[in-house]
Each structure stands twice: as structure tokens, then as C-alpha cells.
Amino acid sequence: MNKQHVAVATPMVIIGLCALFMSNPALAASSSEWINGGVQVGESVVDGLLKFAGPVLGIGIIAYGISTLFKADFNIAKLAIYVVGGLLITVGPMAITALLNTAG
To answer: Over the stretch 3-54, which tens digit does the pLDDT of each residue have?
Structure first.
């Protein structure tokens, strides 16, 4: 690092440390309502992913099947990647929801 980088980074580090040490730890521990917004965002992301990505992937697999029919070039590895991707899209959000429900 040259002297210019150090001169710019030093005030930022000092400001960051002051903000860290001057914050009130009781604000985070006072109530558990602050997490509700994050939980709602997570639930809407899971719902949106399941409602949007599943049909899009299904249409993609159908389109791949139709193109394979016309080209007569079936690639099982490519189809397996699509199917595994669909499983991850479907099972992944459900696993996240299950983990959050058991933790909370």
C-alpha cells in the first residue's frame, strides 16, 4: 500500500471503530421484533422462487425435449443437469424454511 491509500483508509477505519464502540448493545437485545421484517422477506423470496422458477424450469425442460426431438441429438448429461437444477430449486427453499422453523 502506498501513502495515499493509507491516508484515505485511516479515517474510514477510525470512523468505523467509533461507530462500533459507541453503538448501544441494548438496542439489539431489547426486542425480537426486529427480525420479523427479515423473516417476511425470506418467506416471500422462497414463495417467489417456487412459483416462478419451477414453471420456468419445466418449460425449459419441455423446450429441450422438443429441440432434441427435431435434432435427434439426445444428451442425457444435459437433461440430468436440468433435472438436478429443478430439484435444487424446489427442495432448497423448502430446506431453508424447515431449518428456520426448527431454529425459531
So the answer is: 665 566 677 777 777 676 666 655 555 566 666 676 777 777 777 777 777 7
Nearest to 100 by CA among 29, 46, 53, 57: 46
Is 85 exposed, middle or buried (CB count within 10 Å of its CB: 0-12, 13-18, 19+)?
A: middle
In terms of Cα–Cα distance, which of 59, 52, 45, 55 is closest to 93?
45
Which amino acid is residue 58, in one-letter code?
A: G
Q: Is the pTM of this model over 0.70?
A: no
Contact 78, 72 (CB under 8 A): no
